């Protein structure tokens, strides 16, 4: 059952208008390069989450609460870890995909710490990654299965591809771009903008 | 355990050698620093051994140095991920859950744990996973710098634990008995840490759950803040011993064995008792001499 404090009660903010420290960490609307040198524009609009209690309570889908997409460790910039905290709007699209996967597995799907949204200032954010868009998760456990070996990772990857062919799933392996102790799923560098955004709200290219 | 009769340092030297030889130890090294008599003594104090889990005390000192520098807090949360880069070639390796004495940290895989809790597990139940997580956070080079700053010598921190590729390449953590004494002195004397961090480290070391070596050789009521270390060929214990009503001393006992020897901990306990009795006799002698001076 969905909680009374829902996603719709959260304030949507244009992160370019946040304080300097947060803008420096979230880099809203700015361009970053992925590890192949391709330029990507970071999201600009975020949900504002007042407290951890709210994050625990707010269900993004029936099976996933908001906290699961924002559980980070000390490698995340301290200002980003301090409430109110911010998560890109596209997290809802990711959660909807995960809900489909969750129903197919018919068991709990566990997202690893640092495995949901990570800001560009996070120490694991060397290059652009969908984690910085709120559109990627690292799943470390499904039901009783630890996803820490080739068999389990590839078995659940096949299942995810069957029901969600558009998902990107990192191949198993030890090299960059591969994963050997979790399953990385993402829906790409997807940006969600709220209704009512006018064209003149475009970010000055110098800011980018 | 019957009290020993070793009271002079040549006697102590002989008694320790005899205890080790009788048990079949291939090598033994002992060092202590006594705060009561302000004396230090060692037998093979600079002989280098594989550190085994005694290296975790160095990681503990480094973690609290980072806390004092404001880089982390005991309440900071760290992702429990069982994947580390080998010191040999950077390839990934994992800590075997079945080989780790502590299952609690493995059970948190994928979640976060507090730095203070990881440090507690690293020492009290010798969690290899907690150790590697904390060392990975600090970085080996940074850890070595901090140990240098603490003027700890004879403790060569090179890598995380269970790094088999590094082991095969001869890259190992190594310690000497004198080195471990210098490390425990740095913790006990608190010159390089805040009072709060010193107290937290000592509290953690006092909570040690493996009590069959140094603590087993001292009388009831004696407090021991210590860390054991054991792999197939070595067995060590080092720590701060505080007799009831007496002054503290820092003791390190390092031993090397054939893999199948089963009396290693008993031998360390026996050596622990020899040192305890020796320092007790020294203290008694000093008291008699002091009383003579008063007359």
Name a few traits of the molecule.
heterodimer, A: 208 residues, alpha+beta, Muramoyl-pentapeptide Carboxypeptidase, domain 2, five-stranded antiparallel beta sheet, three-stranded antiparallel beta sheet, 5 helices, globular, B: 295 residues, Beta-lactamase, 41% helix, disordered N terminus
Q: Please, could you describe this protein's structure?
A:
The complex is a heterodimer of chains A (208) and B (295). Chain A has 208 residues and is an alpha+beta fold. Chain A has helices at residues 20-26, 52-57, 78-81, 91-105, 150-163, and strands at 11-14, 31-33, 39-41, 45-49, 85-88, 109-111, 136-142, 145-146, 168-169, 183-186. In chain B, the strands form 4 sheets. A 5-stranded antiparallel beta sheet of chain B has the order 2-1-12-11-10, with helices on both faces. Chain B has a 3-stranded antiparallel beta sheet with strand order 3-9-8. In chain B, helix 2 runs antiparallel to helix 3, helix 2 packs across helix 5 (140-149) and helix 3 (115-124) crosses helix 4 (128-138). The model of chain B is unreliable at 1-6 (pLDDT under 50).
Which radius of gyration of chain A do the C-alpha atoms yield?
17 Å
Silhouette of chain B: globular
Mean pLDDT of chain A: 93
Give unreliable regions of chain A as ranges: none
Task: Note the run of SSEs of chain A as H and E.
Answer: EHEEEHHEHEEEHEE
Number of helices of chain A: 5
Derived structural class of chain A: alpha+beta
**At the third CATH level, what is the topology name of the domain at 9-54 and 63-72 and 153-294 in chain B?**
Beta-lactamase
Number of strands of chain B: 12
Helix share, percent of chain A: 10-25%
Distance between the termini of chain B: 37 Å
Which strand-content bin applies to the residues of chain A? Answer: 15-25%
In the CATH hierarchy, what is the class of the domain at 9-54 and 63-72 and 153-294 in chain B? Answer: Alpha Beta
Q: What is the overall number of helices of chain B?
A: 9
């Amino acid at each position: 059952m969905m909680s009374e404090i829902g996603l719709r009660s959260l304030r949507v903010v244009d992160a370019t208008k946040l304080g300097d420290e947060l803008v420096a960490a979230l880099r809203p609307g700015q361009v970053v390069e992925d590890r192949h040198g391709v330029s990507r524009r970071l999201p600009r609009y975020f949900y504002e989450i007042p407290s951890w209690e709210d994050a625990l309570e707010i269900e993004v889908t029936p099976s996933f609460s908001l906290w699961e997409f924002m559980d980070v460790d000390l490698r995340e910039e301290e200002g980003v870890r301090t409430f109110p905290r911010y998560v890109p709007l596209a997290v809802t699209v990711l959660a909807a995909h995960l809900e489909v996967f969750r129903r197919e597995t018919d068991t709990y799907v566990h997202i690893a710490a640092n495995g949901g949204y990570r800001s560009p200032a996070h120490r694991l954010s060397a290059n652009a990654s969908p984690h910085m868009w709120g559109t990627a998760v690292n799943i470390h456990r499904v039901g009783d299965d630890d996803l820490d070996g080739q068999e389990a990772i590839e078995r659940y990857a096949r299942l995810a591809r069957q029901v969600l062919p558009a998902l990107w799933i990192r191949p198993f392996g030890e090299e960059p771009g591969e994963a050997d102790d979790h399953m990385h799923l993402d829906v790409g560098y997807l940006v969600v903008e709220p209704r009512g955004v006018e064209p003149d709200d475009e970010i000055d290219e110098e800011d980018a | 355990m019957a009290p020993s009769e070793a009271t002079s340092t040549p006697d102590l030297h002989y008694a320790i050698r005899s205890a080790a030889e009788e048990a079949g130890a291939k090598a033994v090294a002992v060092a202590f620093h006594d705060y009561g008599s302000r004396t230090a003594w060692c037998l093979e104090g600079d002989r280098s051994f594989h550190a085994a889990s005694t290296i975790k005390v160095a990681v503990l000192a480094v973690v609290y140095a980072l806390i004092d520098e404001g880089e982390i807090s005991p309440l900071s949360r760290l992702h429990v991920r069982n994947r580390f880069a080998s010191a040999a070639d950077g390839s990934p390796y994992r800590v075997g859950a079945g080989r780790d004495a502590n299952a609690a940290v493995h059970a948190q895989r994928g979640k976060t744990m507090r730095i203070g809790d990881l440090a507690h597990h690293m020492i009290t139940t010798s969690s290899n996973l907690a150790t590697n997580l904390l060392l990975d956070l600090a970085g080996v080079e940074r850890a070595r710098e901090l140990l240098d700053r603490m003027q700890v010598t004879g403790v060569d921190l090179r890598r995380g634990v269970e790094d088999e590729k590094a082991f095969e390449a001869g890259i190992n953590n190594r310690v000497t008995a004198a080195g471990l004494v210098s490390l425990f002195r740095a913790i006990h004397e608190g010159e390089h840490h805040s009072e709060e961090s010193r107290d937290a480290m000592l509290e953690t070391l006092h909570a040690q759950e493996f009590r069959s070596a140094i603590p087993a050789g001292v009388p009831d009521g004696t407090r021991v803040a210590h860390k054991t270390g054991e792999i197939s060929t070595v067995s060590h214990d080092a720590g701060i011993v505080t007799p009831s009503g007496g002054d503290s001393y820092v003791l390190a006992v390092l031993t090397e064995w054939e893999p199948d020897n089963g009396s290693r901990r008993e031998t360390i306990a026996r050596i622990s008792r020899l040192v305890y009795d020796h320092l007790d006799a020294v203290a008694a002698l000093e008291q008699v001499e002091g009383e003579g001076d008063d007359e």
